[in-house]
Amino acid sequence: MSEELIYHYTSAEGLKGIINEQAIHCTNCLFLNDLKEYFLVVHLLKNNFNAVCIDEDTSLCLKASLTRLLDMTETLFIGLKEYSAAYISSFSSKGDLLSQWRGYCPNGGYSLGFSKKILEKSARNQQFKMKVVEYVSDHDKPASLINSLSEFFKRFKKEIPALTYDPTHYNIRSSGLRALLPLIPPEGKTIEEVKKEAHKIRLLEKKFGLVLHFTLMDLMPFYKDQTFKEEEEIRVASISNETLYFKCSGNLLKPYRRLEFEQDALKEIIIGPTSNIEQCELGVNLFLQSQNIGNVTVKRSEIPYRSSH
């Protein structure tokens, strides 16, 4: 059985840098082409809120708390994106795909075939995750997302009191117009007791809100809009922003993290469709020789080159 390869499409400059550094650049997701990717998991959670969070036994207090938790998560995604965005590098299960050449190598390029097994081990050792991307629309009900969050919401529901009212409704500060409203606590409760319950719930919401934020951030890189399904993408991602590097792209400074790999992880290089493919092949072979790399197969794309003229 042949070794499973995954492919990273890049330019000549990218190929040279990856081999020289023996590392793949994982770019901050806010600098990728499709910014709506960042918010996709939040939209999926909102659209599947009832399926994930609500059932017939959910108390009024818990429903209100879950709604606030969801609003807090959306706020955190916006407010913390500078500090907790994922760093991502993309691979495809297909090494010679026309849409990939057009999307990632419009001026010609290369597809680098890595051993999935060896690269996955390197990723794991450096606290990166490698997973197959799931393609969805905003209104899908992905079982993988629902299952991933079900345990979190079970824990949250156990912590929130099963009350028939929302204590935070009574947690009114004595200032402004709201101070003029009468504070009538539920039957059998004093207003001080209700305020203590409200304070406890607010603290729990803040605690679980942060946990939910980072849980979703962990899931975020592995969901993508279904229009990209042809790519059959596998991603390596990390939400850590330790040891950042920067590269220039036009007028941007793009932050990235390095995923280092063992030399024998690179198995194959496919040269993309181009009019000067002989020179590209010669250049790649000479470059590999200069780096004392002899275990990499160099191939030409089977897609015929077509001039844009």
Structural account:
Helix 2 (37-47) runs antiparallel to helix 4 (60-79), helix 4 packs across helix 9 (191-219) and helix 8 (143-159) packs antiparallel against helix 9 (191-219). The chain starts with a strand and ends in a 9-residue tail after the last strand. The chain has one domain (5-300). Strand 9 (245-249) and strand 10 form a beta hairpin. Strands 5-8-3-2-10-9 form a six-stranded antiparallel beta sheet, with helices on both faces. The longest helix has 29 residues, at 191-219. It has helices at 12-21, 37-47, 49-53, 60-79, 81-84, 98-104, 116-125, 143-159, 191-219, 277-290; strands at 5-10, 23-28, 87-92, 110-115, 129-132, 134-136, 223-225, 233-238, 245-249, 252-260, 266-271, 297-300. With 309 residues, the chain is α+β, with helices and mostly antiparallel strands. 41% of the residues lie in helices and 21% in strands. The model is unreliable at 177-182 (pLDDT under 50).
Instruction: Kindly state the number of beta strands.
Output: 12
Oligomer kind: single chain
Mean pLDDT equals 87
Order of helices and strands: EHEHHHHEHEHEEHHEEEEEHE
Largest sheet, in brief, is: 6 strands, antiparallel
Overall 3D geometry? elongated
Q: What is the distance, rounded to the nearest whole angstrom, between the alpha carbons of the first and last residues? A: 43 Å
Helical residue percent band: 40-55%
Instruction: Order the strands across the largest sheet as they lie in space.
Output: 5-8-3-2-10-9
